[in-house]
Structures are given as C-alpha cells and as structure tokens.
Amino acid sequence: MKHTPIVHRRVSAKDKKKGLFIWAFVLFLGAMTIKGQLDVAYMDVAHAQEPSVTVQDRLGEVLDPKGTIYIKEGVDPAWGKIKEPKMIKARITKYAPNDSCHYPAPKGGCYVANYPKIATPGDMACPKEYKFGTKVEYNGTTYTCNDRTANWVQDKWAEPTFDIFVATSAEAKGRVFANVTIYPN
Asked: Is the Cα dihedral 119, 122, 128, 133 positive or negative?
C-alpha cells in the first residue's frame, strides 16, 4: 500500500481572521437564538401566573392607545363606547369608486360596509374599533365612519388608517400622517 504524503499548507493571517470572525458570528447567532427561546419561555411563565380578569374588573379601562375606548358591560371591547372627543395621530388616505368599489350598487355607486348605504363624499373608512356613525374631524372637515379600513392595511401601519371617500381617482392620491379628532356618537 502506497502512502500519499500529507502536504501542510500555510494559512495566512487574513484567512485566520476571517475564520475566527465566521466562528464568532455563528456563536453569536446561537446565543441570540437561545436567548430568544428563554425570553419566550419566561413570558409564558409570567403570563401563566397572572390572575384571570373579568369584564367587570376592567370597566373604564383604556384599551386602545390609538383612541380612548372603554369597556361597557356585556359588550365586546373592540366595540366599546368612546367617552369624550379624543385627538389621535392617524394615517389619512383617500379612495375613489374606480379604485375600490368592491360592492357595486345596481343603480350606480358603491355600497359601503354600513350596508345598504352607498358611498358619498363625506364618508370615511375607519378602523373597526370605531362604530359606524362615529364622526372624525380632519383638517377642518368632519367625516362619518360608514366604511371599514381593510385589516391588512391596519396590520401594516402603526397608526390607525382613516380612508376618505372622494369622487375621482385623481383626488385619491397620496397619504398624510396628521392629527384627527374622534367624536362620540
């Protein structure tokens, strides 16, 4: 049997540094993964120790940082009552029938989520925590929540999105982050 001689290759200092960096990075990723798993386990234990809370215990509690919404007994918290006018930061967009008429009315126009109402200028699509009929003031004009902002839109942005109905696609351009005032209905 013939043996092949082992050839030793010299590793440059640059290659050594590169190898050390790669190993350090792999170790860092492993440590962060373990830390993340420990954080999740800790949160599970911490939440398991919290006492159960009833709606009665939470009456009058502020639930939503986007607007002051209070729980009423026997009512889903998302549909609670707004107690007083509240100014919040919001994302304002506009929509037109040509762009988003999902439910055309037989005699023209588009039905809004507040069926059987047909969209008209002055209507606004609001996040679902605001009841139909809620008044929203933006830039000196008061709009009425008669439509719903899509869930995927709400999930994408930190601020609540209020979508103003306009007559033409040309008016439906852009978005603005501004303060709006929510009035109880």
From this structure: negative
Query: pTM value?
Result: 0.53
- Give the integer Cα–Cα distance in Å for 37 and 107: 58
Determine how β-strand 161-165 pairs with β-strand 123-126: antiparallel
Q: What is the CATH number of the domain that holds 127?
A: 2.40.40
Structural domain tally of the chain?
A: 1
Decide if 26 is inside a domain: no
Residue 44 confidence class, pLDDT cut points 50, 70, 90:
low
pLDDT at 47 exceeding the cut of 50: no
Q: Helix (H, G, I), strand (E, B), or coil: what is residue 88?
A: strand
Partner residues linked to 136 by β-bridges: 143, 182
Q: What amino acid is encoded at 133 in this protein?
A: G
Q: Count the alpha carbons within 13 Å of 13 in the hemisphere toward its beta carbon.
A: 0
Report which of residues 21 and 32 the model is more confident about.
Answer: 21
pLDDT computed for residue 83 by the predictor: 61
Q: Which domain holds residue 163?
A: 77-183
Any domain includes 30: no
Q: What pLDDT band is residue 86 in, cutting at 50, 70 and 90?
A: confident
Neighbours of 111 (CB within 10 A): 17
Give a yes or no: residue 5 inside a domain: no
- Cα–Cα dist 132/147, whole Å: 7
- The phi-psi region of residue 63 (left if phi > 0; otherwise alpha if psi is between -120 and 50; otherwise beta) is alpha
